Structures are given as structure tokens and as C-alpha cells.
Amino acid sequence: MVAAAAREIHDGELVFVGMRLPMIAFGVAKRPHAPGATGLFESGVIRDTPAPELLYTMGDPSNLLNATYCGDMLSVMSLLQQGRVNVGFLGAAEVDRFGNLNTTWGSRNGQQVRLPGSGGACDIASLSQRTVVLLEHNCQRLVSRVGHITSPGNGTGNGWRREQGLPLRSGPSAIITTMGVLRFGDDGEAYLASVHPGVTVEDVLRIRRNLRRSERLILNISGRNYECIGCFQNCFDAARDRRTRAVGVDGGAGSATGADDSVRRGP
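Predicted structure:
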């Protein structure tokens, strides 16, 4: 996940880093391919080098030490309003097929519980040129529709962000899970673009989530074709026209759409 997240950072970009895994990804990206990237923290800190020590909060002294800039929240968040932030990293309790995030309401033992809410996530999701979400790949986190939209993705599909008056050059770019990377097609919906090393397509199919249910899928993994018919039936609502796409391993090009549990190895 960290390596995949690091690849989302390009040299010279302004990056809303956040905490935990994205912070590590920022440090990884700075060494091989993005030495000119600059990290932004909503607390008002700007850094062109990673913090020298492990951080528990973005306000830790080690994050302030030798920072490029230590100011107020408005100074950093205003970069979003100016359209200057290239990519922002976010986490979520739930993310749906259109990249909408829920960090407001969840459930525990059958009871609805209040979660921390947006913080700066709604601003980042609304105004960053690209948004990257990191979370665990499971049925509770990847849902057809989030219970509450805390931070917008593509809303109800392609064109929704424009209708809401959000910047044209903004929106979800990738969902990085513990199993692979999902990206977004022209229709605004997520598709499986790649799986991480050591993860197979069959592993992803067992989760029974996040791919469209009535489409035909041809997956090309390490030179072998896998065909999946009619999968993830409990995930998305409507049947869709059949499509055929391809998916690579670890960042390969193409997309995947889902079908059923049966996987037939093709020629």
C-alpha cells in the first residue's frame, strides 16, 4: 500500500499528506522519484523533507522541527481554494463505487455510532486536483453506497461534480486497498486497475465487493487470462451492459469490472 501510494506523488507536487501510511508514502516518494514534492499538513505545517521521527499527530515537535513553514490552518487550507494542491491523501470508514467517503456514521455491534467526521477531508476531497483514498479491502469498508457522504467523490457518477460547482480539475484518482488499486473510469465509477504483489485476482474476488455485478471480465495476470462471470452480486444495484477490460499486476494499465465467484481460466 505504501509503495502504491508513493507512486501517486509526482515530483514538484504539493501534497496533502495526512497521517500514518500517507506520511510514510511521502517519505518513500521523496527519495527515488519525487525529491521536489512538498508535504502539507492541515495544522499549518509545510515540509519539503519528511519528519525525522515517527509522528503520532501532525502537531508533534518532530514535525515542526526544521519545517519549511509553520503557520496557521488557514494559510495551508487556502492553497486548496487557490487550486494549487495536486494530490490529497484521505482515509475513510466507508468508500463507495463513486469514491464518496463516509467518516461521519458507522456501526458497531449493530448500533449506529458517531465517527470523528470530516476535519479537513471534505475540503481536500472537494478541491484537490487528485484525491487518493487508503483503506482496508473488506466488505464493510467498500460499499455500493456510503451511508453518509462526508467528503464527495464523483457523487452519483460522471458530471456530478460539475453540477455541484466543484473544480473541473478535481476528484478521486485512486482507492488503494490492502489488495490492490482501484481507479475511476469515464463514467465516474471505480474499477480494479491492479493487484499488489502476492495478491491474486481470486483473492480479490473472494471479498465479493467493489466490482460491477453483471459484467464480463477478462483479467490478464502474468500472461494468463482469467474470465469471471456474474460476480459480487450483493455489491451494486443495477445490472449493466457487458464490458470487457484488462487488468495488470502492481500498477499495470487497464481496468477490471466484476462478475460472479466462478473464475474460469482462459487460454
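Summary: The helical segments are 2-7, 21-30, 61-64, 73-81, 121-127, 160-163, 201-207.
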